[in-house]
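Issue: copy button drops trailing tokens. Both records pasted manually instead:
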Amino acid sequence: MRTAVYVAGFNLFHSLLDGRRGAKWLDLHALASAALRPHNTIRLVRYFTARVKATDDDPGKPTRQDFYIRALRARDVVVHWGTFKERPKRRRLVDPPPPPASRYAEVWHREEKGSDVNLAVHMVNDAWSNAYDCAVVISNDSDLAEACHLVRSLGKVVGIIGSPRRPATELAHCSDFYRRVDLAVVRRCQLPRVLVDAQGRQLACPDSWRLEEGRKE
């Protein structure tokens, strides 16, 4: 069965990868293959993300992301960019001071924009173009439910790959199957420590992403 995989990068990161060594240098083809059945032949993988910015406590974040994106492209993954929007927001304090001091504070709020829309548009367009028989979404974002319904109405199979947690109800109702993957599976599906991109440049897994020998977490 011709299969196309659609990966919501930040949803995947926060549900399975964040704070876990030995997980982030992830081979998306390998992960999908590990979760799917032998009759699923992966023809296309699309990855949706946004560019991260350096922060005072992590100035190397954009460099690591760039290495990973280049590694994905070396594996024939198609990368689509959304954006981050940053704006001030008023939030209630967890432990507010006594009156008359304010119980609220102004904070910077960063929000990813465009990735979920881009994913939905490409998944539906690929269905119309008959690029696949089965669409697999790696995300637990309920905003993708309508796109999944549309794809199924075109006679395509829709599957979801996600964490061991229960899938969003909306996605469960609009998909044909749900495959759970845990940290052990993710760690078995890592890219080679060093690989070569289309320009012949070596790409190495960032040191901070590697799992130390003998360390489980």
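Record 2 (pasted manually too):
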Amino acid sequence: MYSCNDRPAREESETIAAFNSSDKASEEPIEPTTRLKLQLAYAGTDFHGWQLQDGARTVQGCLEKALAQLVGRPVRVHGAGRTDAGVHALGQVAHVQVPARRGNLPWQRALNALLPQDVCVVEVQIVPDSFHARFDANRKTYSYTLWTEPTYVLPQRKGYVWPVGRLDLEAMVQASKYLVGRRDWSAFQNRGTPVRSTVRTVFDVHPEIGGRPNETVWFFSADGFLKQMVRNMMGCLVTVGKGKLCADQVEAILRQGSRASAPATAPARGLCLERVEYRESAACPDPVPDG
């Protein structure tokens, strides 16, 4: 579902050659740089998440390896969200500093020629050096896909859905109303990355039906999410949908603020980072030509 198109070998070699030819330019003692904003899509099934880990295959690691081949030195990529192992993305955003003399080269095509087939660059833009993919984001949207057919799961969808069987969707929608607003979300935070505050504003939680047969897709939008917060929300809503928890009990769980009192975490495979949004003042991007 999230795989990239095949890349013709001749086209790849010609694109990379264009990068190599730019090395003929004389280098200054302190080389000026340009900041690029990258939009990425990836299938998270075979990745140990976004963030670099020693001895593990990660999205950040693959991207930095490809960039280093093009730039000729190590570079550090900063992502908007640190997706966990098995989590997918259609709209992950990252930024990176590259030599200014290479700023207008065909980055999208060159990177996609070097990246593995389960990750690709969707768009590249030049942004001000002040832009930060993570700290300038003011809204993130995730989707979570449930498989509701109780007797089978299509093999092609197993890595992208959570098989849960029949659910009481009306009860889930009622419970989801308690998951919108600004409040302390400690009850839906798993242990892990320390944060200054567990208060977040959730703008919207809603389901969509009518896409693929036997699938219900839930969307979650907020100014930010705690560690595994969306998966914990989804686990709670599914528990309501199975009749094991009343909708109004969700509010009580939130008031208690204890992870131990909340239902189990939904698996990673159904989760996808759909998009990351920014204030208009955060970046005034210029498109990078790709051809």
